[in-house]
Sequence to fold (210 residues):
Amino acid sequence: MAVVDLADVETHVIARVLNERLDGVSFLPDGVYELFAEHSIMPCVDGFPVQMGPEVPEMLFIRRETGKYTGFWWCVGGLVKVFVEETGEGESLSTAMIRHFQSTLGVGIVLPQGCAWNKPVMVAQHAPYELDVAEGEFAGDEPSKHCISPTFLVKLQSQDFEFGTGADGRKEAGDFRWFPVDALPPDEEIAYRGQNTVRVMAEACRTLFS
Fold:
């Protein structure tokens, strides 16, 4: 039996094989997920909804209902699928983001005028350990995987929210709140130690509505 170093296998190939071996399984068993997460940097996408409030711009945060950061504030987002059974291909950033907003809040999104899918506001990164980062580079905490996440400002097409559930029946969001950019959630209530990401996105929000 040949020995394969999984670190040398392309992510989409691993995903394709797992999909074939786990046909009919709606989410990965813990051991399989941990193996996949250990050997692959996972692509993600995140979006902070924005609007102009009565006095200053506002950003929408969801209160997470799953994982280590249950009860913490964060944006909407998650994994970009590297293999979709219906198409045999992966997702684009826009397709993944639209899917996450539909499944989490039940609403559509558009990018604000002047924003583009090929120009994220920032590229966030999260990992289960302290990364060696350069000056001006930030790394948040994600205990279950190492992921790279292009992060965007978005506008909601509706605020008639419906909190959806994932493949395992759990809700990602249990609540939401619009925060003025000058009164954001305190650092200790932001998920993934993502306070630096929040500050960058808040400054971009101010610029957008200036």
Notes: The chain has a mean pLDDT of 87. The chain is about 25% helix and 25% strand. Residues 1-40 form one domain.
